[in-house]
UniProtKB/TrEMBL annotation:
One of its GO terms (biological process) is Mo-molybdopterin cofactor biosynthetic process. It comes from the Bacteria. GO terms for cellular component: cytosol. InterPro entries: MoaB, MoaB/Mog-like_dom_sf, MoaB/Mog_dom. May be involved in the biosynthesis of molybdopterin. This is Molybdenum cofactor biosynthesis protein B. Pathway: Cofactor biosynthesis; molybdopterin biosynthesis. The keyword Lyase does not apply. Belongs to the MoaB/Mog family. Keywords: Molybdenum cofactor biosynthesis. It comes from Acidithiobacillus caldus.
Amino acid sequence: MPIDPNRPFQALGIAILTASDTRTADTDSSGDLAESLCREAGHRIQARVIVRDDLLALRQQFQHFIDDADVDVVIATGGTGVTGRDVCPEALAPLVSKPIPGFGELFRQLSYSEIGSSTIQSRAEAGVCSGTLIFLLPGSRGGVRLGLQEIVLPQLDSRNRPCSLAELLPRIRHEH
């Protein structure tokens, strides 16, 4: 992806949410990876939380991040599968102002080359929620790495050409 060196990089405020009934701060390796990749890309980590796999608890946390003026982007890991406890998409759904269907489509396309047809079990998705960008990634380190390195972080780099979500963010936030 071409980077325009004549454009300035703009660090964004990022919140990381891990949806899990079993992970702790010591065992959340996917959250660790998300935090590390976002920091390495030059962004600010505004918050990092682990929330149990509970629809209302997750929705409340998403809403808290949406209401926080210092959070531009939420990266959620986990809760995107097809079992009964996987409820991140359902928790987020009523908060979405504009879905970004291309994210999930591209994620699954890229994921197919790594895990084959198992990619259909992923409900990775993204949306704009009252001016905040939210990305739902699988809980696996491989899914986090793929989603962030190949899609999310390039789109959060204001120097990315031909365009990026980062350069649109001021307009997106202004409209909400």
